[in-house]
Amino acid sequence: MSATAVATRELMLVEAVNDALHVELARDPSVIVLGEDVGRLGGVFRATAGLREAFGEKRCIDTPLSEAGFLGAAVGLCMAGWRPVVEMQYDAFSYPCLDQLITHVGRYRWRTGGRMGFPLVIRMPYGGGVRAPELHDDSPETYYVHTPGVKVAVPATPADAKGLLAAAIRDPDPVVLFEPKLVYRTARGAVPEGEHVVELGKARRAREGSDLTLVAWGAMVAVCERAADDLAAEASVEVLDLRSLKPLDDEALLASVRRTGRCVVVQEAPRTCGFASEISALLAEHAILDLQGPVLRVTGYDVPYPYWQLEDWYMPSVERVVDAVRRVLAF
After folding, report:
1. What is 204-329's CATH topology?
2. Domain boundaries, the chain
3. Given 104, 136, 196, 286, the catalytic residue
4. What is the 8-class DSSP label of residue 97?
């Protein structure tokens, strides 16, 4: 192994999250983890397994079933000098704490005239495809992106799951990290050992192409990659993994679309006012003369996330993405 080579391990995405938490708690004694079942159980997805045994019950804290309560506690912990990492057990369980997040978490730097940082991380598994019951499989990233003062990141690979979580923990501002539960145990890849940080606000070119750009984040990146494979005989399709929704790497987005001239944006969330709409508007404002066709969106639908009998019809599929790409190419 050369002096510059980095040792890696093959990990599933949820294992990479666990690895990041172990590394960051060992590195910084002000980092603590709290949430429902994160301690004795190790989390319902086992993302926090072993933390209580390694760092004690005062740094890996089981909370009551009160999301608004323990996020409110995390607000006070931040003000007292801690760096809390809060786990929302499921995506839609976070809705009761939106008051704390919008009213307090996103405003403290502004409220204190910049005198107070707010190093709070909110982790939550999100999205469908795992046959979960109601309120266990939403894709609510737009609520958080729309909240001033809050950063939002969504990993698609194990290495990024570790690196983005480390970056979020070290950031002076609040960060919401959405972890795609569909790929917790289906995505496996090389993850650097030890400290590993992926800068917030930097997109990743998951696949190079010249005819069209597919833009996605989280679980939809793999869907886009499979669509690009299916289209290989027809077109050269680039796949851009945004990784960070706020801050957004608009330079990478615009560079890719200016190079290919066409774009399809894929999101799991409902269609109306989703983040795909923001990307479409940005391209219309800054790349309209480079576009050779309309920017199309492949999204979820404007309905509550359906029960498992119908969720395959709700989620963007490879077939839906391929159809959108062909329509843009034929424009």
Report:
1. Rossmann fold (3.40.50)
2. 10-192, 204-329
3. 136
4. G
CA 225 to chain centroid = 17
Rounded-to-integer distance, Cα 331 and Cα 292, Å: 8
What are the CA-CA distances from residue 187 to residues 174, 181, 222, 234, 318 (Å)? 27, 10, 9, 27, 17
Distance CA 33, CA 87 (A): 8
Domains 10-192 and 204-329 alike in fold: yes
Cβ partners under 8 Å of residue 65, min gap 6: 36
CA distance linking residue 306 with residue 240, whole number of Å: 28
Q: Assess whether 22 carries a catalytic annotation.
A: no
The whole-number pLDDT of residue 3 equals 52
The Cα angle at residue 200 between residues 197 and 203, in degrees rounded to 5: 105
- Distance CA(220)–CA(209), nearest Å, equals 18
Q: What is the CATH number of domain 10-192?
A: 3.40.50.970
**Cα first-last separation, the chain:** 50
| pLDDT mean values, one per 10 residues, the chain (331 residues) | 75 98 98 96 95 97 93 93 95 90 89 89 92 85 95 98 98 96 94 97 98 98 98 97 98 98 97 97 97 97 88 94 98 94
Q: Which two tokens stand for residue 323?
A: 């159809």
47: left (phi over 0), alpha (psi -120 to 50) or beta: alpha
- Retrieve residue 111's tokens: 């409220």
Distance (Å, whole) CA 38 – CA 190: 25
Q: What is the DSSP string of 27-43?
A: H-TTEEEEETT-SSS--
pTM of whole model > 0.85? yes
